[in-house]
């Protein structure tokens, strides 16, 4: 069996890659001629397709369709497109494919037509001053658009310019810049500007340049120094918290850095710490200030030794040097100073009742200005009770009036006054001193028996006791405890009576033997605990009553009556006089009311012809009227039978607490016809009441009376619905009431 041999491709139709240089200027340029072995009568039609022909970029390549010649019609740029892949076709005249399409590759050959480009125009780097040689600072780099596989893109770096010192070097291949020698000093040159170059063709081709800026970072390699060795300043005395002056320094390190910031110290000349020095953060100078007031009279000059150094210590590589020192001389200027009360406040003690004009103290101030001749004068600045007088020259304080307890101007027994001391300088200065006066209590009051009367049973052991008390106007320790005893001048009292202490202010009076009922006057001696003690003999009025089984008084009437024995003659006269005066005033008031009513009746008939409404409203009655229901109860006056003797009588507020209430209270008169009669009955009841002392009784004075000629206005209003009311009498009042008589008559 015969095998079919493989088909052989024509060599003429296989096209090898074609190379053409970029930037070829002879256009059109024949690149290649393609040819098919299958010649047909009439010829072969050739064509090409692909980028540069019928695809973007268009029109770069073309072919002669009859000869198969391929032409370059435009300049090529390898950096845009480094090769083109086309397809070649062979057809007969009828458009039938004679050959399979074949590839046509056109390679663009590179030329050195692009300069190197640095990635940035200015490169920045930093290195500390004093860095060792070989310390790398930064790397500069560039690019080249040419073929990296050719020398057209082989770059080399160099430093074209860096000054005369040549302190830096660059790696030609990598572009890394490093220090080349020692001696970098920021204080000498802080910034280095280098011009670097990049060249292709391994340094022999196209070139470009850029700037490399290198900053030296500061280190503390320079200590601060004073601008001069001595500084002079002055300050006023008594000034505190003020700046005196500045000391100036210089530091070569970078301003504002920790290596530049100075720190000052006062080494000598200020043992009391009157001065302080701080650093001005803007200028780095030392600011000297006063922190404690200076006294020119004590010390007028200071000589301070001040040192300065940096906040950050010097670098170890820097040679050590002693700290910078300077002398600061400060002169203290003398100024006028205010007087001073050395003892402020001044506390003194004065006895209560000290007579006026008594010198109690001399309160003076001193003038700190010992180098100036000045005179001080004094005045009272605050004396609320006007108790004191002051000598303006000597400062002696005297009493103007007696200093007594109690007083609203005393605070805890102390009286506060303010004194003013003033010098005679220009302008004058003053000072205020506080004078605290303690008013010492004097025992000038004896204790008083409270109350001076009482009631007790006359049987020992069963209610035969009475609690006694006392008060004293003096303050402690001249008051309680009080001592109660029977008068030593009447020793016979001890047979029937005894006094025992109950507490510091009270004692208990007890009956020792059974006593008959009736009043007793016991002279007692009361003594306080002051120094020296004050004592006073006083009468205690005791009423002894009939005792029941439980020790209480059975006969309340007798007890109430005998309680009057505890009232002194003077008090009794005052009560009687007050009662008589009150009754006279009430009688005068009643007479005045009756007189006004008569005048009213007469005036109603004698008035001129005015408006009827004015005459009706002219009513001078002083009673409460219908709406005044709080001052009295008219039912109690009209119906006294409702308040029978069996009812519980009201409490007598004018009777002593120990007295009983009357057994038969006063009855209200039945149907009283006038206030005067009612008052007379009340007076008679008060005078004839045997159960209480004649204090007066709880009388009722708010009854308006009955049978008034002028009826109240309310009766006129209420008559609108009262058919039995007769108003014919209005016509008898004259022509002024005629219209009113027509309306209601």
UniProtKB/TrEMBL annotation:
Principal localization?
Answer: membrane
Q: Is ATP-binding among the key words of this record?
A: no
Coiled-coil stretches are: none
The Cadherin domain extends over 12-118, 119-226, 236-341, 342-449, 464-554
Q: Which InterPro entries match?
A: Cadherin (IPR039808), Cadherin-like_dom (IPR002126), Cadherin-like_sf (IPR015919), Cadherin_CS (IPR020894), Cadherin_Y-type_LIR (IPR000233), Catenin-bd_sf (IPR027397)
Gene Ontology CC: adherens junction; catenin complex; cell surface
Q: Which UniProt keywords apply?
A: Calcium, Cell adhesion, Cell membrane, Cleavage on pair of basic residues, Glycoprotein, Membrane, Metal-binding, Repeat, Signal, Transmembrane, Transmembrane helix
Q: How does it sit in the membrane?
A: Single-pass type I membrane protein
BP GO terms, sorted: adherens junction organization; calcium-dependent cell-cell adhesion via plasma membrane cell adhesion molecules; cell migration; cell morphogenesis; cell-cell adhesion mediated by cadherin; cell-cell junction assembly; homophilic cell adhesion via plasma membrane adhesion molecules
Q: Which domain of life is it from?
A: Eukaryota
Glycoprotein: is it a keyword of this entry? yes
Q: Which residues cross the membrane?
A: 569-591
Q: Name the job this protein performs.
A: Cadherins are calcium-dependent cell adhesion proteins. They preferentially interact with themselves in a homophilic manner in connecting cells; cadherins may thus contribute to the sorting of heterogeneous cell types. M-cadherin is part of the myogenic program and may provide a trigger for terminal muscle differentiation.
Q: What is this protein called?
A: Cadherin-15
Give the species this sequence originates from. Erpornis zantholeuca
Organism lineage reads as: Eukaryota, Metazoa, Chordata, Craniata, Vertebrata
Q: Which gene encodes it?
A: Cdh15
């Amino acid at each position: 069996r015969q095998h079919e041999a493989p088909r052989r491709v024509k060599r003429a139709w296989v096209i090898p890659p074609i190379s053409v240089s970029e930037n070829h200027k002879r256009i059109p340029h024949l690149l290649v001629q393609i040819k098919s072995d299958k010649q047909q009568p009439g010829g072969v039609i050739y064509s090409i397709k692909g980028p540069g022909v019928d695809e973007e970029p268009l029109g770069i390549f073309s072919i002669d369709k009859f000869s198969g010649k391929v032409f370059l019609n435009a300049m090529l740029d390898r950096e845009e497109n480094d090769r083109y892949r086309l397809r070649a076709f062979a057809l007969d005249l009828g458009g039938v494919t004679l050959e399979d399409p074949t590839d046509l590759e056109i390679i663009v050959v590179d030329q050195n037509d692009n300069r190197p480009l640095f990635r940035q125009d200015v490169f920045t780097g930093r290195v500390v001053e004093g860095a060792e040689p070989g310390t790398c600072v930064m790397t500069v780099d560039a690019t080249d658009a040419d073929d990296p596989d050719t020398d057209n893109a082989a770059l080399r770096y160099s430093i074209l310019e860096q000054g005369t010192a040549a302190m830096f070097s660059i790696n030609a291949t990598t572009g890394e810049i490093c220090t080349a020698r020692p001696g970098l000093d920021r204080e000498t040159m802080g910034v280095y500007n280098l011009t670097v170059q990049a060249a292709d063709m391994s340094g022999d081709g196209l070139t470009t340049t850029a700037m490399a800026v290198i900053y030296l970072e500061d280190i503390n390699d320079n200590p601060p120094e004073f601008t001069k060795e001595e500084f002079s300043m002055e300050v006023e005395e008594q000034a505190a918290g003020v700046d005196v002056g500045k000391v100036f320094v210089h530091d070569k390190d970078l301003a504002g850095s920790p290596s530049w910031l100075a720190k000052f110290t006062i080494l000598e000349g200020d043992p009391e710490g009157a001065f302080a020095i701080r650093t001005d953060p803007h200028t780095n100078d030392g600011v000297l200030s006063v922190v404690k007031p200076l006294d020119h009279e004590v010390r007028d000059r200071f000589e301070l030794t001040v040192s300065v150094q940096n906040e950050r210590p010097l670098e170890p590589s820097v040679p050590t040097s002693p700290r910078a020192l300077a002398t600061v001389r400060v002169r203290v200027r003398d100024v006028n100073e205010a007087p001073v009360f050395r003892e402020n406040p001044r506390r003194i003690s004065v006895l209560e009742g000290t007579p006026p004009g008594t010198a109690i103290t001399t309160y003076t101030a001193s003038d700190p200005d010992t180098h100036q001749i000045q005179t001080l004068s004094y005045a009272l600045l605050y004396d609320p009770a006007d108790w004191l007088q002051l000598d303006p020259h000597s400062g002696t304080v005297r009493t103007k009036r007696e200093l007594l307890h109690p007083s609203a101007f005393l605070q805890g027994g102390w009286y506060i006054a303010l004194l003013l001391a003033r010098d005679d300088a220009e302008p004058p200065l003053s000072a205020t001193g506080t004078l605290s006066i303690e008013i010492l209590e004097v025992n000038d009051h004896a204790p008083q028996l409270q109350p001076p009367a009482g009631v007790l049973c006359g049987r020992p052991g069963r209610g035969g006791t009475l609690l006694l008390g006392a008060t004293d106007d003096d303050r402690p320790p001249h008051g309680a405890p009080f001592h109660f005893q029977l008068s030593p001048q009447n020793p016979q009292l001890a047979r029937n009576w005894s006094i025992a202490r109950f507490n510091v202010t009270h004692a208990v009076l007890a009956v020792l033997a059974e006593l008959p009922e009736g009043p007793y006057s016991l002279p007692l001696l009361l003594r306080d605990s002051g120094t020296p003690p004050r004592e006073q003999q006083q009468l205690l009025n005791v009423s002894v009553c009939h005792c029941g089984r439980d020790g209480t008084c059975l006969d309340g009437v007798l007890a109430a009556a005998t309680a009057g024995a505890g009232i002194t003659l003077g008090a009794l006269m005052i009560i009687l006089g007050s009662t008589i005066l009150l009754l006279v005033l009430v009688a005068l008031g009643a007479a005045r009311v009756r007189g006004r009513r008569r005048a009213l009746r007469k005036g109603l008939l004698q008035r001129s012809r005015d408006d009827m409404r004015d005459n009706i409203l002219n009513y001078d009655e002083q009673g409460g009227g219908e709406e005044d229901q709080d001052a009295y109860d008219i039912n109690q006056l009209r119906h006294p039978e409702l308040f029978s003797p069996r009812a519980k009588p009201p409490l007598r507020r004018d009777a002593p607490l120990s007295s009983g209430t009357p057994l038969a209270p006063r009855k209200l008169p039945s149907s009283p016809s006038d206030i005067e009669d009612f008052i007379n009955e009340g007076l008679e009841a008060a005078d004839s009441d045997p159960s209480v002392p004649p204090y007066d009784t709880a009388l009722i004075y708010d009854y308006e009376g009955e049978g008034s000629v002028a009826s109240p206005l309310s009766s006129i209003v209420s008559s609108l619905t009262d058919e039995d009311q007769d108003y014919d009498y209005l016509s008898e009042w004259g022509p002024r009431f005629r219209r009113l008589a027509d309306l209601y008559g």
